[in-house]
Amino acid sequence: MVIDDDNEIRDILRILLSSENFKVTEAATPSAALSLMSPDIDLVILDVTMPEMSGYDLCQQIREVSNVPILFLTAKSRNADLMMGYAAGGDDYLAKPFAYPELIARVKGLLRRYIMYQGRHTPKPKGEYLTYGDLRIDCVHNHVWKKSIELALTDTEYRILKLLMGYPNQFFTIQNIYETIWEEAYLSSYSNTVMVFIRKIRKKIEDDPKNPAILVTVWGKGYKIV
Fold first, then answer.
1. Residues 6+ apart with CB under 8 A from 101
2. On the chain, which terminus has fewer CB atoms closer than 10 Å, C or N?
3. Bridge partner list, 26
4. pLDDT, tens digit, for every residue of 74-131?
5. CB neighbours (10 Å) of residue 190?
6. Would you list the DSSP string of 63-117?
7. Sheet harboring 143-146: ordered strands across?
8. Which of 4, 6, 28, 24 is nearest to 15 (CA)?
9. Which pairing describes strands 70-74 and 92-95: parallel, antiparallel, or unpaired?
10. Helix (H), strand (E) at residue 142
């Protein structure tokens, strides 16, 4: 789904994505987008500045009903703006004006990871679980529980937690996490991106997120599950 109040941008995206055999649903307003959300939507491309509400607010509302990957398409590329996008539940961003190859690469990367980790259209064997302490991950259906309570994690949050839980007591550097999850070369400016997601995961899995006892910081090195 492409959500943008600019008709020209929507036309361009529809033409580019359709040329790659993607089926594109369009929405010009946040309210139209929410009415069109369905299990058939596998990716959202979302503008930041729109009528009715900001893209950040719309992203949060989408997150209440779906964990599909969300790619922010925005003219705002300051670090603070990017952090707001990630904090709202976004998975990636692309600054306007954008290049066609980069757009397609990011769309395909997000869809590939979503299909792989969410099991969309891909049969997987049963009985794949990761369990550590009070946490349990169903790797087939991508559910996460703490004790008997199911947690609502976004796709990116889920993948980071699964990565760390797969190697308990082994620390991962910020670069390790970024390059594994985002599948692209790490730059030092990306460290805040990883830290935002770590904070969001802690809010969901920790009894006291300010004093984490599960997903801990290894000072000067990175993060690990203990």
1. none
2. C
3. 2
4. 876 666 777 788 888 888 888 888 888 889 988 988 888 777 655 444 334 444 888 8
5. 19
6. HTT----EEEEES--SHHHHHHHHHHT--EEEESS--HHHHHHHHHHHHHHHHHH
7. 129-132, 135-138, 143-146, 149-151
8. 24
9. parallel
10. none
Sequence-separated (6 or more) residues with CB below 8 Å from residue 223: 164, 171, 172, 174, 177, 198, 215, 216, 217
CA diameter of the chain: 51
Q: Prior bond to 97 cis, omega within 30?
A: yes
Task: Enter the pTM of the model.
Answer: 0.63
Which amino acid is located at 222 in the chain?
G
Q: Which amino acid is present at 158?
A: Y
Beta-ladder partners of 172: 223
CA–CA distances in Å: residue 86 to residues 12, 73, 80? 25, 13, 10
Q: Residue 208 contacts by C-beta under 8 Å, 6 or more apart in sequence? A: none
CB 202 within 8 A of CB 215: yes
Q: Enter the tokens of residue 10.
A: 């929507």
